[in-house]
Design goal:
Elements: H1 4-13, E1 22-26, E2 44-48, E3 51-55, E4 60-64, E5 70-73, E6 83-87, E7 92-96, E8 99-103, H2 107-110, H3 124-132, H4 139-142, H5 154-163, H6 177-199, E9 223-227, E10 232-236
Antiparallel strand pairs: 1-6, 2-3, 3-4, 4-8, 5-7, 6-7, 9-10
Helix pairs in contact: 1-6, 3-6, 5-6
Keywords: DNA damage, DNA repair, DNA-binding, Endonuclease, Glycosidase, Hydrolase, Lyase, Multifunctional enzyme, Nuclease
GO molecular function: endonuclease activity
Family: Belongs to the FPG family.
Length: 250
């Protein structure tokens, strides 16, 4: 599943299409009359978290990659695309296993760019404020909350929690202030490291926790479980990742 940094790469790979007209549109999406796209120029390409936004003069196409979405630039997979766009220069954009939606209105009114960990408008103070407003939220759920950390996915979640030594079942309200700050800071820091490693095709070589079986700090087996409301896979060490929970009230 593409996380926020992967969509930044997609935007970079397809930036040459800005200003070009769409000459053909196909795919099995029913979200839009695809003939409506033909002849329209691409005004801009933007990302918000896991959303890829194709701005046209008459509308905005939102591609949401969900859990299993993927894309190809100037090539195709051996399966029908959800949406495929052919451009003036002979290039193409193809999207698979994703959600396609038409948005109406100004993007700056539809999206809170300050919540996107990859955005120049990212607001860490705003993220801390949202976290403090949800003290009962689990750390593993908080990092996957796209209203707080847009673009963070399961890989980044596992790596950030391991890096800051916080157990995924810790509650946000029980985190000491330094740990809360570290959670917010590392969500962005790791996302940009993810971006650079993925560009160099060495991302998996830098994983310390995600999909791993042994803790590289304690040299004992990791625990693996589907935790939180999201039920996403967590890999964590019971020794070096401290579990912060509110004190019991008898």
């Amino acid at each position: 599943m593409p996380e926020g940094p992967s969509l930044v790469i997609l935007k970079e790979q397809s930036r040459r299409f800005v200003g070009q007209r769409i000459v053909h549109a196909e795919g099995n999406t029913w979200a839009i009359d695809k003939t409506r796209l033909v002849g329209q120029p691409i005004v801009s390409l933007r990302t918000w978290g896991k959303h890829f936004l194709i701005e046209l003069p008459e509308l905005v196409l939102r591609i949401h990659f969900l859990l299993f979405g993927s894309y190809r630039v100037d090539e195709r997979r051996d399966r029908p695309a959800r949406l495929g766009l052919a451009m003036e220069d002979g290039g193409e954009l193809n999207f698979y296993a994703c959600s396609v939606k038409v948005l109406e209105g100004e993007l700056d009114q539809l999206y809170d760019w300050s919540a996107d960990v990859m955005s120049d408008q990212w607001d860490p103070a705003g993220a801390r404020k949202k976290l403090r407003a949800a003290p009962g939220m689990l750390a593993c759920d908080a990092l996957l909350d796209q209203d707080i950390f847009s673009g963070v996915g399961n890989i980044i979640k596992n790596e950030v929690l391991f890096r800051i030594r916080v157990h995924p079942l810790s509650t946000v309200g029980a985190l000491p202030a330094p740990k809360l700050r570290a959670l917010v800071e590392q969500a962005r820091t790791y996302s940009f490291e993810f971006l650079e490693w993925k560009k160099q095709f060495v991302l998996k070589q830098h994983w310390l926790a995600h999909t791993k079986s042994i803790c590289p700090r304690c040299h004992i087996p990791f625990h693996k479980a589907n935790l939180g409301h999201s039920r996403r896979r967590s890999f964590y060490c019971e020794r070096c990742q401290k579990r912060y929970n509110p004190p019991r009230v008898d």
